[in-house]
């Protein structure tokens, strides 16, 4: 027996003292009493909250909590499911296109009255400015804007901002003129997309938006200048240049990564392009946007030959919106300084070969 003056008498006990161990019996299974199938065919019906035998239909348990709803997205299924089932986890659904689907009908008894005629004229004036005989710009404009965004896959926030901006353009008639309606609306969609990128602080250039939306550069800059003043984006968090011809987001490394993505260059090769870009920036001085895009195009063209994975001059010039002669000029500068631009470690590791570089006079 332990002494009464010991501070921890139970700690001095000797012998194998084991407390009884309790654990759930994992061998217990829910089996249908009618079918007695093993393994059981039990179906979890989320709509009714029941566990049902899949063979005979007998309800084995009810009031089952639906824990699978948290793994679903409320945008993955149809509109009816989003309305009826509000317990689905995921992003809140908001589509600006749904607010445009407004239909008006007038009573036949007042068809010939002056009020109905005025209402019909108001509807035609506000909503029926078709780009073609069967299209409504307020409905089809955001859809075409979505189609324009598909090649570059913008963030959802950028796409929503562009749709809301275009809604204001159509409702307020900011660019509505009698001539060249279709062209002005295309330029307005491109300008809204560019402004949305600026508001979201995502770098994009005028050349990229004009090339992707197939809009003339002059129309894009003019529409951008008008919409920038109408939306008053000079103040606040938006970063807008003072001149419509000025470009933001023309960081050389940012342009390089985007152009490599457009050309389908592998991600593991992009660090080599970045190193050549840093060396190139030590050789030339960039003064404007055009010069920046020329430098980026020449770096992509030079590094592709250096690594043995060349990109055609036509593809590089198309992505950078440049002429091939400007790219070849800076390519010659890189070729003359190839000893300082290309690290010796690349050649020792068989990553690059100077023999693969064609002479500037041999280029097309």
From TrEMBL:
GO terms for molecular function: RNA polymerase II general transcription initiation factor activity; TBP-class protein binding; zinc ion binding. Transmembrane segments: none annotated. GO terms for biological process: transcription initiation at RNA polymerase II promoter; transcription preinitiation complex assembly. One of its GO terms (cellular component) is transcription preinitiation complex. Pfam families: TFIIB (PF00382), Zn_Ribbon_TF (PF08271). InterPro entries: Cyclin-like_sf, TFIIB, TFIIB_cyclin, Znf_TFIIB. It comes from the Eukaryota. Keywords: Metal-binding, Repeat, Transcription, Transcription regulation, Zinc, Zinc-finger. Residues 28-61 form the TFIIB-type domain. SUPFAM superfamilies: Cyclin-like, Zinc beta-ribbon. This is General transcription factor TFIIB. The lineage of its organism: Eukaryota, Fungi, Dikarya, Basidiomycota, Agaricomycotina.
């Amino acid at each position: 027996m332990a002494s009464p003056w010991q501070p921890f008498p139970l700690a001095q006990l000797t012998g194998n003292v084991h407390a009884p161990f309790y654990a759930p019996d994992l061998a217990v299974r829910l089996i249908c009493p009618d079918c007695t199938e093993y393994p059981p065919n039990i179906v979890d019906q989320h709509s009714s909250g029941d566990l049902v035998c899949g063979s005979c239909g007998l309800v084995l348990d009810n009031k089952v909590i639906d824990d699978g709803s948290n793994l679903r997205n409320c945008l993955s299924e149809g509109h009816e499911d989003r309305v009826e089932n509000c317990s689905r986890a995921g992003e809140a659904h908001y589509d600006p296109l749904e607010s445009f689907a407004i239909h008006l009908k007038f009573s036949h008894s007042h068809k010939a009255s002056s009020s109905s005629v005025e209402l019909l004229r108001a509807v035609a004036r506000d909503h029926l400015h078709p780009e073609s005989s069967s299209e409504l710009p307020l409905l089809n404009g955001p859809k075409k804007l979505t189609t324009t965004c598909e090649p570059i896959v913008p963030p959802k926030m950028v796409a929503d901002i562009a749709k809301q901006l275009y809604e204001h353009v159509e409702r307020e008639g900011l660019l509505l003129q009698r001539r060249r309606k279709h062209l002005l609306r295309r330029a307005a969609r491109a300008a809204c997309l560019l402004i949305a990128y600026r508001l979201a602080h995502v770098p994009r250039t005028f050349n990229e938006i004009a090339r992707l939306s197939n809009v003339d550069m002059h129309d894009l800059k003019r529409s951008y200048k008008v919409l920038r003043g109408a939306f008053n984006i000079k103040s606040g968090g938006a970063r807008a240049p003072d001149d419509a011809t000025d470009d933001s987001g023309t960081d050389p490394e940012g342009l390089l990564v985007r152009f490599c993505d457009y050309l389908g260059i592998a991600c593991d090769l992009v660090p080599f392009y970045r190193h050549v870009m840093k060396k190139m920036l030590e050789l030339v001085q960039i003064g404007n946007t055009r010069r920046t895009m020329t430098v980026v195009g020449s770096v992509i063209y030079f590094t592709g030959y250096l690594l043995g994975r060349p990109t055609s001059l036509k593809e590089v010039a198309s992505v950078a919106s440049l002429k091939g002669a400007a790219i070849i000029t800076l390519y010659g500068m890189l070729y003359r300084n190839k000893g300082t631009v290309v690290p010796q470690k690349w050649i020792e590791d068989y990553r690059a070969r100077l023999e693969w570089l064609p002479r500037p006079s041999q280029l097309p």
